[in-house]
Structures
1.
Amino acid sequence: MTIESKANNWRPTAKLPALQARAEFYRTIREFFAAREVLEVETPLMAARGVTDPYIQAFGVDDKYLQTSPEYAMKRLLSAGCGSIYQICKAFRREEAGNFHNPEFTMLEWYRLGFDHLQLMD
């Protein structure tokens, strides 16, 4: 590695057009759910327990675990009566890495009260 390449290795790999496209995509998602009166929520990224799915491996951090999905925390909100909700968040899964998988990724999860799976797909 040359001195010049070492001096420039701090630069992000994401290009500005990609960052702008992502921001526009998030704006579109938020407008979609806002128009349907679905509340955006944010749940903790760390939890005291890992997941119960034996095929998903969580990252441990000290005595906590990074979330593999916001599902459990969001279902707690549902059971507490908060209504239809969605979340755009980071999720973390060990042993899922490759050309099409990254251990850290962004997930969109939503729940609509009174909707069946066909209505959710529509």
2.
Amino acid sequence: MDHREEFLQIWHQYVARPGSEKLLDWLDNKTDFFSAPASTRFHGACDGGLCMHSLNVYHALHDSFFTEGESEESYAICALLHDLCKANYYKKGTRNVKNDATGQWEKSAQLQRGGSFPPTATAKKSVFLIERFMKLKVEEAVAIRWHMGGFDDAAKGGCFAISEAYDKYPLAVKLHIADLEATYLMEHRTSAVR
């Protein structure tokens, strides 16, 4: 089964919230989510890397933390959509690189950041995009918003809201850990450019 098929299988099995089908239609027909990379040069910097990463986060989150009585839907939504901000964000471009063997400058393919408004890939943007189609529970929105942990620009700037979010919403901590596991352990060496 390919990544898109697996994503759709999980989505249809667990996500039934009003607006979820419209979101899925937009995702499938108006974005590059299923073919986009997850980053420009690190984990998943390859065709389909974003979907692959989302599935890896889902499996890490579900396998490590899901307990009976919790919401399968919340786990699926948070994991599968946490990096939605990266859909329609990366574009293919080139840069000049010096060839060590010849000493000549040559054009080399590379992924570049860009995309449509707003021109950022942030967790806040993921929450915004999701809520254009379906309502998130507070714990889901907080989990997606703070899934980057200390890598989030607000946390790097000294914001203490992340600590309060993690204290009040365990799903946020779980999603952050699952994202780290997927990025640094499951997807090690999945970049086509490194």
